[in-house]
Amino acid sequence: MPDITSEAKRIYYKVVRSRRRTMCIEVKDDASVIVRAPLHTAQQAVDRFVRDKAPWIVRHLARLSAQPVRQFARGESFPYLGREYSLVVESNGGWPHVQLEGDKLVACVTGDTSPGSPALKAALLSWYLDQAASVMSARVDALVRQTGLTPSRVRIRAQTRRWGSCSLKASVNLNWRLIMAPQAVLDYVIVHELCHLKRHDHSRQFWDLVASFVPDYRAHRKWLRENGARLKL
Ligand SMILES: [Zn+2]
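That is the input. Now the predicted structure with zinc ion docked in place:
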């Protein structure tokens, strides 16, 4: 794996060459760095590009490592539709259930209620997935009506790194973690994927189409770049 050293930090990165015209860099949630480059780009040119972008990469990696690991402890903050809720854990003898009460996220679990217990984690994950299924499906329906862009099917997925994707068969996938983001950001990602039904690229025309439905989409992209790593259990 190639690497460069910037400000005494070594940056390892992977190069993915494809039919594209420009180079870009992605820093993944797992802190891996990927450089996407046109097919015949020389390694020297890639190195130079990474060196130029090194301050940005270092900042991004620092932000990722600053993310606290969730403890699933009482009083810890959990995001839902862009707001933070403080976790309350109660023990009950019946079915585990989770609900919002004011600014609290109340989890009633059977058995082990200690921070990070499997029962507590499972109850919270299943609550988030349920909310994602109902809220996100309703937003998809509303935005399909608003844009007139209809996918063949929509799936809300747990096993994906991306926020959303759209296949050539017009099937849209959305990451359940978007339920943690403000609704305007969730809406933007849905509209983004619906617009791919018309254009399967990120051309000027694609962004113009996105902007016709979400004029301030740039602010939402920025929000995701800055806060996306925080949206996880
Ligand atoms: Zn896209």
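The mean pLDDT is 91.
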